[in-house]
C-alpha cells in the first residue's frame, strides 16, 4: 500500500496541469502581487503577505477539485481503466485510495510551499502552535470537501474533454467570487452572499483570524463544509447508482 501511495505521489509530479495550477501558479501570483503592491503594513505588526498567502493557498487548492482530480476520475471511468486493471488482479480499492491520498498530499504540499515562500521572501508571520495546528486541520477538512466536489463533477460529467473547460470556467468563477482578483470586501453584495455559501471563501478570507491567533475554530466554515461533504456524497452515490 505504501509503495502504491509513493508511486501515486510520484505520478502527480509528472502531470504538468497538476504541478502548474497547484504549485507553480499560486507562487507566481504571490510573487507578482506582493512585489507589485509591496508588502505594506496592515496594522498590529502584520503585513500584506499575512492576508495574501491565504489567497494564494486557495489558488492552489481549487484546481485539484475542479480540474486534476475529477479529470483523473472521469478518465478512469470513461476508459474503463479500473475495470481493465481488475482483470490483472490489481487491488482497485487500494489503487483508488492511494490516488486520493496522493491528491491530499499534493494539496497539503501546496499549502506548505506557500507558507515557506511567504516566510522566506516576505517574512510571513506564523501563528502560535495550537492555532497553526487548528489552521491545518481545517484546511485539511476543506480539502476533503474539495475532493468530494471533484468526485461529484467526475460522476456527473464523465467526458474529460467536456470536464476540462467546464472545470476551468468553474475555477475562475470561484476565484472571482472568493476575492482572488478583487478584495472580497469590495465585491458586490450579490457576489459576497454567494461567497458565503462556498467553504473555501472562509479559508481565503476568514481563516485570517485563525492565523492571527484570534480564534481557533471557524464554526460557520465547519458547518458549511460538513454540509458540502454530506450533500456531494449523497449526490455522488445517487449518480453512481443511476449510471452504473
UniProtKB/TrEMBL annotation:
Membrane disposition: Multi-pass membrane protein
GO cellular component: membrane
Main location: membrane
UniProt keyword terms in alphabetical order: Membrane, Transmembrane, Transmembrane helix
Residue ranges of the TM segments: 20-40, 52-73, 94-117, 129-155, 162-182, 221-240
Pfam families: ABC2_membrane
Localization per Swiss-Prot or TrEMBL: Membrane
Record flagged with keyword Transcription regulation: no
Protein name, per record: ABC transporter permease
Lineage: Bacteria, Bacillati, Bacillota, Bacilli, Bacillales
